[in-house]
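A further point concerns the way the authors explain their paired sequence and structure data. Showing the layout once, in full, would remove most of the difficulty. For illustration, here is how one protein appears when written out as sequence plus structure tokens:
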Amino acid sequence: MWDYVKLALLGAIVIFAAIAANFARDLAFQVHAILIMLVAGGMFLWTLRLTDEPKPVIDQSSYMDGVIRYGVVATALWGVVGFLVGVVIAFQLAFPQLNFEWAQPYGNFGRLRPLHTSAVIFAFGGNALICTSFYVVQRTSAARLWGGNLAWFVFWGYQLFIVLAATGYLLGATQSKEYAEPEWHVDLWLTVVWVAYLAVFLGTIMKRKEPHIYVANWFYLSFIVTVAMLHIVNNLSIPVSIWGSKSVQVFSGVQDAMVQWWYGHNAVGFFLTAGFLGMMYYFVPKQAERPVYSYKLSIIHFWALIFLYIWAGPHHLHYTALPDWASTLGMVFSIVLWMPSWGGMINGLMTLSGAWDKLRTDPIIRMMVISIGFYGMSTFEGPMMSIKAVNSLSHYTDWTIGHVHSGALGWNGMITFGALYFLVPRLWNRASLYSLAAVNWHFWLATIGIVLYAASMWVTGIMEGLMWREVDANGFLVNSFADTVAAKFPMYVVRGLGGVLYLTGAIIMCWNLWMTVRAAPQRAVSSAVPAE
């Protein structure tokens, strides 16, 4: 019966998408309608082919690892794509002639930049969070993922969201909201996928066999719930037409700015911090083969972090039309946030007590440790930059870009790489990684790349801010905007080279993981333990 329901639903989607493609008011909406029609049509034929066929019997006592394997592959591939686009736009800034005339408007910086940020944050980071959360919640709950094939819907639905968002950017369909560029129809689809993700994760916790809910799951759950709330409120909009991608925001003016940066900073706080802390609290102890240093500190870290982070967004709007009390409130909460953030960093680093010798021999541990170090550095730099006196120099400069990338590449990237190196041998039942030497190469290329990137942006950002405020004896500005752009050229080249090194490390990782699956010896199969 369920097969016939799916056929009716998929058939209706195909018909509606065909009508939408015919009446589309803009190219992006038309392309999206055709994509949805093709996907739904393919699923219709696949479902029709399997209708009334005997269903395979699934061992409900085993973990559902197939979807996690696909998530690992997607994470690695989207990572390389995101880093590659980042390198391209970095060199476009250094050498504007790389905005080729023949590639206009699809290949210019204005369209590739949101493609890069979304590919790295939502495609690379999002897939990392989904696949690791599915792995961790099963192992710590001693339960198979809830919802049958709903986890597969989450995975493939999320990939469809990524493709719709990326094609929308290239074709000019965007809300022009930082980290929230997809238009209304793409946002609606992501909402459906995200609710399914919450259902799978929460359902697995509710049917757990292990009575205790490990702290990593607290962080994952807070990330899923809060991102859902942020996404819905910030993307409230009214479509101009049901046949077009253009929409009008419900909020306007300073209210829109306030809601956007409540969303934007908490996308950093919950998507890029809380979710990845869930990864830290599981994979660092597992790789180090040591218990978490202080479970009590992890609980204090959790509650302080999620309470304080939600208030920090207004610090992005110093010296704007936002009331002064609101931006000051954001600044105060940002400064206080430094303490629980460093509590988490200390907890992660001290977990290695008694295992520091592994840093010499285990490049995966080294990757995880440096990621925690960058987490600590970024969560000190962020509160410092929220202080009004500092912000008056740093805001709108490349210092902010350096801060964001030291966190994204150093913290999010390195902990994800460590998690992928941990997962692949276990998911594909291999005795070890194909090459630890390649992991070592990846570590050093990535680390040097981050240092070149962040240092060049710190130098150019502070220089830029000082040049903007330099005045002569008569009180007139000394430098034009073009003067600051010209002065930044050497640092922009260094930034691009740092990106090349980081991208090269990621490509080496993909080769190493591929060879691990293909050529590494298998390990003896063991039955699932109660909780790992």
